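As described in the Methods, two query proteins were run sequentially through the folding procedure within a single session, without resetting any intermediate state between them. The first query and its resulting structure tokens are shown here.
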Amino acid sequence: MSILVSIIILAALAASARWTWWREKTPGLRVLCYHKIGVAPAGSKLKELWISPEKFRAQVKYLLDHGYATLLFSDLLKAWRGEAVLPEKAVVITFDDGYENNYLHAWPILKELGAKGNIFVVYNTIGKVNSWHNPASEGWVNMATLAQLKEMQDSGVIEYGSHTMNHPHLSALKPGDAAWEMAESKRQLEAAFGREMFAFAYPYGDGAYIPALRETALETGYVFDFSFRQGKTPWPWDRKATTLDRLFIRGGDNIWDLVLQLERGASRL
């Protein structure tokens, strides 16, 4: 073998090592985290938050073709309470924020393929725009209307959780204001959708690892609180000890990335 060939092989191995194929498979609950399904607008600095409908459909089809069972929050609750057995290849598909593109693109794909999904809704932006965003990064995006959200719920394909009233950095708020963001969103969403909101996701993941804020979330009545930390969560889940982690699906991810996320809890270093 020539020196040049050896160098090429070593370079290829080094490049491939940034993917996690060499890690051992890890057990735990798989929770996928998406945001926007569609094509990122020109000039967007947030392209990793956008998954094209074609790519999303391919990812969901991969899950179903390979024996994964997609769960609603209510399915997960039954498993956590011991009222049902968690499927060996369970996966929870989640979307943060509640964008209109979830209604226009994600929901039809899930419905077509026979999969289930869950959306964390920012209550005060229902039917408005994602006003917490900095327009310098990307223009504001339309949020789903209440009618659209109800239609998705009525289909049996989508369930909801809370993502606060206004999508703030909870750690930047006074304790009472942070508590209000969590409790009021739960109350308003339950009134709007006629069902208990027992799942919560911290905006930006902020507060998930601050004991006082996490205690507030649990005392508010949320059974599940989801972080934005990358990884799988050991199951059975120790609710007092830790949040539920998630697997962030980025716009540039391919099926190989998805496989590594599902099996190893991360795809790239």
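Immediately afterward, the second query was submitted; its sequence and tokens are:
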Amino acid sequence: MYNSLVIRSLSVTASGLKVAYGCGQTSMNRFFNWLKGLFNKTMDKLEDPEVMLDQAKRDMSGALVANREKAVQAITQKNRLAGMLEERKKESQKLESQAAMALKTGNRDLATNFMREKMNNDATIATLQASYDSAVATVEQVKVAIKRQEEEVRKKTAEALAMKAQWKQAQIQNSIAKALDGLTFENSYEGFGAAQERIRDAQSEAAARQEMQATSLQGKVFQMEDQVRDMEAESELEKLEQRLGLRAAPVSAEPATVQVVASNDPGVAQEEAVAQSEAERQLAELEARLKSS
């Protein structure tokens, strides 16, 4: 009993771990999908021409600033060399003056020492002069390069503005093209075509019904004609029977009486009586013609 309970508990725990693992796996997948979407969105934004042009402009400006700083350092070194060279020249002049004074006082050995120091100082001056001349040439080259770079930056900046305008124009043209692609004139006219087709069907149906009605009316006319022929044949047959003595002669019918319907309005009652009399008269004439024919 105890073993079964333990096994059941372990089974429940394992099921819970599987569910938790599945939930965790789903969450991780969603997280990675979110990171992937964010990365793609960021890359799309970085590939935007406006962003790329702005970054290129910042890079050019940064490079120009760095080169200007290097030019400043080079000019600073040139100025330091110029100061050192000026000091050494002054020192040589001083040593030469001291040597001249020693000669005037008759101290040749001291004058010789001053001249030796002056010679060493002149050698240093020569070295400083070469370095200074090289620094001046380098600074001039740096100035020319900076000036060219400034011109290039201005040129590229103008090109960037033109490219941005072209990008905007291309976007507008694409938007217009997409709008034109989205126009559905054919679908708009389908309703008119369907309505026209329905109207034609209705007209055809109406024509068919009229044709059927005409056919039915014609059938009624034919039926009436058939009845008239039957009546004529019956009349001829009666006449033949009378001639043969198989049928007695017909008794003359009494004149029909006209029944006048009473009405509160004398004029209306009179008109109704006249109409009824006229109808009975015409019916009597028709019966007489049928019998005589």
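Residues 4 and 103 are 125 Å apart (CA to CA). We note this only descriptively and draw no conclusion about the first query from it.
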